[in-house]
Design goal:
Number of helices: 12
CATH superfamily of the largest domain: Butyryl-CoA Dehydrogenase, subunit A, domain 3
Shape: globular
Largest sheet: 7 strands, mixed
Radius of gyration: 22 Å
Distance between the termini: 52 Å
Number of domains: 3
CATH topology of the largest domain: Butyryl-CoA Dehydrogenase, subunit A, domain 3
Bound molecules: flavin-adenine dinucleotide
CATH architecture of the largest domain: Up-down Bundle
Length: 413
């Protein structure tokens, strides 16, 4: 066993005895570790047995969605009485999910990261009061609908979904006397098919600024199409969304989103979550590979006893340790209120680069079995590619860092 199971009885032991080489989990409180232990037990018993089959089918195992929500991981009661849930706990929660499966981590953070951040940053105080409790208990499920078919990396300047305010025909004027009309399309939106609302970013034709709207998934004019044929994150469902003359009331507009600057503030928080996912994926692939090379015999000895294999194990561990150190420090900084584009861009870019190397090495040391779902590294290897590209590609994050370093923006528009 690589990791110690953390049932209530075994809390003295470490959660991550190998992958967390420098013991970052020491930063967690006993209560936080207890909640993560509950999550570990659930993932090991309920989720893991389903992963290979559902990955191959390209479906999400909906039967674990409700029990996972019922674990109450976003703001667990254990943590809210005297010590609120802290960034480091949120990070390790993502790490634990991604260490089991990247789709599970992406599915959970679509609500707990993307949608929650959209509400936290974009909603007015009054709107937050109404919506946030429902976001936390998943009774209002939402997704982040930013990317468009023709605009991915250049979304800031290129976003072309439109929002037009129309006054009521009875002559009512102003925000309460009419509604918004949205037209356009969104692509890649994770979890849209099971969401209650789509948080849609659209450009107001009146002032040219980007605004955000909570659109009922079943509203007239909204159509969703599943993106088929994915070779990465197959369990996670992504949608192509078309918006045709969709009406939204002013009350469902996020009142604190008045330009793309407000969207960028959301992305800062979300990119650090993805860096935690990239770190967790590495841990999952590494642990599976290590277990395999200790068992598998060639030339009369275990694979793990060969020098060349050990060098690969050491590189994987180095990558994971560097990634964890990065995300832990970034999360600490954010806990002090320091949020800068270049900081989360650096963490997302660097952990993703290391993730790509780690999962490739893990796949390599498992040999031919490394491309089958049974050995438990192929899933991580394939899923890493989507994580590498979403929430800002390598190049876009590098350009954000380059701009901070030189003062010169290399974006072409
Ligand atoms: C599985 C998955 C889930 C996703 N979930 C969501 C979601 O829930 N919500 C959402 O809004 N979006 C989501 N996305 C979209 C994601 O954020 C975009 O895929 C990403 O921003 C890249 O955009 P693109 O795919 O259009 O690539 P493009 O922008 O077309 O880029 C293609 C390539 O060109 C490079 N490139 C582009 N511009 C430059 C430049 N100026 N200099 C150098 N290189 C450049 C890019 O780095 C990339 O390598 C998801 C994507 C995936 C794959």
């Amino acid at each position: 066993m690589l990791t110690t199971t953390t049932t209530e009885a075994g809390l003295g032991a470490r959660l991550y005895s190998v992958a967390d080489w420098y013991d970052a989990e020491a930063l967690l409180t006993t209560e936080e570790r207890r909640v993560l232990g509950r999550l570990r037990d659930f993932l090991d018993t309920e989720a893991k047995p389903l992963l290979a089959e559902y990955w191959e089918r390209g479906e999400f195992p909906e039967q674990i969605a409700r029990p996972l929500i019922d674990l109450d991981l976003m703001e667990p009661a254990d943590l809210t009485v005297e010590a609120p849930a802290r960034g480091i706990y949120h990070g390790f929660r993502i790490f634990e999910l991604a260490r089991t499966d990247a789709s599970l981590a992406t599915w959970y953070t679509a609500q707990a990261g993307l949608f929650r951040t959209a509400i936290r940053v974009g909603a007015s105080e009054e709107q937050q009061k109404e919506w946030m409790p429902k976001v936390i208990d998943f009774s209002l499920k939402g997704v982040f609908s930013l990317t468009e078919p023709d605009h991915g990396s250049d979304i800031a300047g290129g976003l072309s979904t439109t929002a037009r305010f129309e006054n009521d025909s009875d002559g009512g004027a102003g925000p309460d006397g009419g509604s918004w009309v949205l037209d356009g399309a969104k692509r890649w939106i994770g979890g849209a098919s099971t969401a209650d609302v789509l948080c849609v970013f659209a450009r107001d034709v009146a002032d040219g600024q980007v605004k955000a709207f909570l659109v009922d998934r079943t509203a007239a004019g909204v159509s969703l199409e599943k993106i088929h044929g994915k070779t990465s994150l197959r369990m996670m469902q992504n949608a192509h969304i078309t918006l045709n003359n969709v009406r939204v009331t002013e009350g469902m507009r996020l009142h604190n989103v008045n330009s793309f600057k407000d969207v960028a503030a959301m992305l800062r928080a979300m990119r650090s979550d993805v860096a935690w996912i990239a770190t967790g994926i590495q841990a999952g692939a590494f642990e599976a590979a290590l277990s395999y090379v200790k068992e598998r015999q060639q030339f009369g000895r275990s694979l793990g006893s060969f020098q060349l294999v050990q060098e690969k194990l050491a590189r994987m561990l180095g990558n994971i340790t560097a990634s964890l150190s990065l995300v832990v420090r970034l999360t600490e900084q954010q806990g002090w209120g320091i949020y800068r584009d270049q900081d989360s861009a650096l963490a997302k870019m660097q952990t993703s680069l290391m993730m790509r190397e780690t999962v490739a090495l893990a796949r390599e040391v498992v040999g031919g079995n490394g491309i089958t779902l049974a050995a438990d590294v192929a899933r991580f290897h394939a899923d890493a590619e989507a994580v590498y590209s979403y929430e800002g590609t390598h190049e876009i994050n590098a350009l954000i860092i380059g701009r901070a370093l030189t003062g010169a923006s290399a974006f072409t528009s």
